[in-house]
Amino acid sequence: MNVIKNYLDKLSGIWFIQQTNYNLTLNKVDIFKGELKIYPKISNIDKLESLKILSLRYEYYFDNQKINFLNFYQSDDRSDNTYVIKILNNRDLIIGSCALFNRNSLNINLRYNEFSIQETISFYNERFNSSITRIAINNKLQLISFSSAVKIKHL
Q1: How far apart are CA 116 and CA 134, in angstroms?
Q2: CB-CB contact of 36 with 149 (8 Å)
Q3: Rounded to an integer, what distance in angstroms lies between the CA atom of residue 74 and that of residue 78?
Q4: How far is CA 57 from each of CA 24, 42, 62, 84, 124, rounded to the nearest angstrom?
Q5: Which UniProt keywords apply (predicted)?
Q6: Residue 7, Cβ neighbours under 10 Å: how many?
Q7: Mean of the pLDDT values across residues 105-119?
Q8: In this structure, what is the dihedral angle of CA atoms 39, 10, 97, 148, given to the nearest 10 degrees?
Q9: What pTM was computed for the model?
Q10: Which H or E element spans position 124?
């Protein structure tokens, strides 16, 4: 978890982001430009009964919204099994996994009912990253998103 935590700490900051979304079902393209703020928070040891793990919890808030965050859990620092938890509307949990492809690329996989989300975030240096996000319903690709971001300020 320390390796993943160190990697995720790179995300902390204020970023200028440009994102292009391709909606394959509607045959539409959407382009977004703007600032994105990512706040890290390290919580104390927390217990998740459903996963039967006891771990440190690392929370990452996007634009400081409590409903838009990811939690990263791991059973112990020696384990390679890391869980990703995303809370939807303060009620529903999406439980997924994450893995480092190499020192500069993180893959996150989430599933919720018939939805699946796969995101790969790549860092080129401390101030520049890019990501590819794929959203599928019933294993059929619905949306693909490409983004690049430049860090304006570290938090």
Answers
A1: 8
A2: yes
A3: 9
A4: 35, 6, 16, 10, 26
A5: Lyase, Plastid
A6: 17
A7: 82
A8: 90
A9: 0.71
A10: strand 115-125
What are the strands, taking DSSP E only, across 11-81?
Answer: 13-23, 28-48, 53-62, 69-74
Give the DSSP letter of residue 50.
Answer: G
Euclidean distance between CA atoms 59 and 44, whole angstroms: 11
In Å, how far are 34, 75, 84, 114 from 149, measured between CA atoms? 10, 31, 22, 30
- Continuous segment of H or E residues that includes residue 105: strand 105-112
The total of other beta-carbon atoms located within 10 Å of residue 154's CB is 11
- Give 5-30 pLDDT, tens digit per residue: 666 677 788 889 898 999 999 999 99
Residue 115: other Cβ atoms inside 10 A: 13
Q: What percent of the chain is modeled with pLDDT above 70?
A: 57
- Which residue is listed with tokens 């838009």? 68
For residue 54, the one-letter residue type is L
Domains of the chain: 2-153 (2.40.128.20)
Alpha-carbon span 89 to 58, nearest angstrom = 19
